[in-house]
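2024-03-11 09:14:02 INFO queue: dequeued item Methyltransferase FkbM domain-containing protein, len=218
2024-03-11 09:14:02 INFO validating residues
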Amino acid sequence: MGWKHLALRFPPFKRLHEERVRLRARLRAARAQLKAAAEERARLKVQLREARKAAAEKRARIEARLEAHAPKLLKLMEKCGADLVLDVGANTGQFARWLRKGGFRGEIISFEPLSDAFAALERACAQDGNWSCHKLALGEDNDTATINISLNSASSSLLRSRDWATAVEPGIAHVGQETVDVRRLDELLPSLTAARRIFLKIDTQASSAMSWRARAMS
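2024-03-11 09:14:37 INFO prediction written
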């Protein structure tokens, strides 16, 4: 005799049958949710692979353009007598390594606020006695700020990315946040170096918010 017949013939079984029906419905719903979650996970994994591939291709294009413009930039720096490069938004030190590869032997000071990127930057600096790094963001005030970590860490920013921009460039999608220290360059620089012929490289999405006072470069 099945549950349905027992429920009809014996009232105590009716409540058990109804509970069994509810549990089976909840089980079906849970299985449907698990299936949807698995499909979403698979979709995100594909998106992640595509974003990483796109980021790698973009880095390759940027490096190719840098290589093409290297002679002009290095010649300009030599002509200006630059004895210091401020590498703002250094990430893992790609620009500084490129300068060294091109023959620049002057002082380099790199600034990178993200912990993971800074760890790699610090390891690179340890191999070069004339290259130092600081775990800082540069900005308008001495403060702390929340930086949005992007899938492609080089695209991380104090600013939020727009939905349309993420659709065009998936690598800038935010995957986390980190609280970072922010310092003013004009107040920080005198304690770091006495160099006065400075080449300033800025690779940040929030550079428009920075305050560069003339006395920092004078």
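2024-03-11 09:14:37 INFO annotate: The longest strand covers residues 174-183.
2024-03-11 09:14:38 INFO item closed
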